[in-house]
Amino acid sequence: LASFSSGSSLNYTLNSNNNKLRGQRVRLITCSYNKFIDFALNQTKLHTHLVPSPLQDSYKCMTALDGKTELQMISFQAPKIRLLRSFSFEVSGVNQVLDFAVFPEPEFDLPIFCANFYSAANTNIVVLDLNPLYDVISNKDYKDKYFKKLIPLGLKYAELLPWGGKITSESMRFFSPIVIWTKFSSSQDNHNVLYSAFMEYYKAWLELMDQAEEEIDVSRISCNQKAQHRYLTWREQKDPGHQLLKKLVGETGAKDLMRNFLFHGVKELGSNTFLDYFPEYKSEDGTVNLKRSIIGKSYENRPWDEKGDFIGR
Ligand code: BLA
Known about the structure:
Bound molecules: biliverdine IX alpha
Order of helices and strands: EEHEEEEEEEHHEEHHHHE
Structural class: alpha+beta
Helix content: 25-40%
């Protein structure tokens, strides 16, 4: 029954095989991701001066190969923001996707804001996080700098949006102690909780941005840049959205979108290759192993404790 429409919830006469429901006026579960994007842009404008990114000229709106799905893309930059970009689409009544990210300038060691929502029929797959630039398992200073204050926020939503179960193990190194990794069935309540989580996490990120001070030490700027490049390289190669993107825009189109829009910076911020960063993915013939995971899936339960310490292994 879950269906989505742009705009707020509307009344709809169900054309269902279910006798009980046929002909009844039922409130549809609506969750257009447009309101998430509007919220984020409006909030950002309260904190900084956004200007359109040069990418905006080439990546705006695009019709998928099916001739009807509209892919929406927007991109901006601001003094501390190298790239704020959003990618979303909706196949009416089938599925809906939001990939919203904010990448800081290399002069800042700010986390990367990351909201990835995938909804189909009755499942919703969610990753919402302030992805740390540095390893928060071994680097306590970095963890404390950005996440100590946010642990209560994380705990609140860890309860409302329970851990989604086993996950590609390699992904954990890009997640923070307050990551929301969850799956849920579609209901208005669940979508409302997701929207409030998105708002609170985004406001938290903007506060961090306000406070962030520009790094002037060139070697530290270069470390930040390399860390961001490694992150982009990972996602450009292994993001779970690839298959669906290929279906929508073809292999070449998907590659172009990932390299030049979604993970823009992968060409500009460094020259290391995927295998330089992640040599465990090297297959016998020297190419990148196409498997998403080498280790496999793990972390059945949330691997962070109440203090934000990593308890998985
Ligand atoms: C599933 N998306 C997932 C999963 C994760 C993420 C963890 C569960 C499967 C797994 O364990 O790998 C998201 N993984 C992330 C993120 C990071 C990461 C954000 O490592 C960051 C470091 N998702 C999208 C887009 C699409 C999409 C744009 O963001 C489609 C165009 C689809 N995600 C998508 C689909 C699934 C999924 C279809 C379920 C299918 C699958 O597991 O392959």
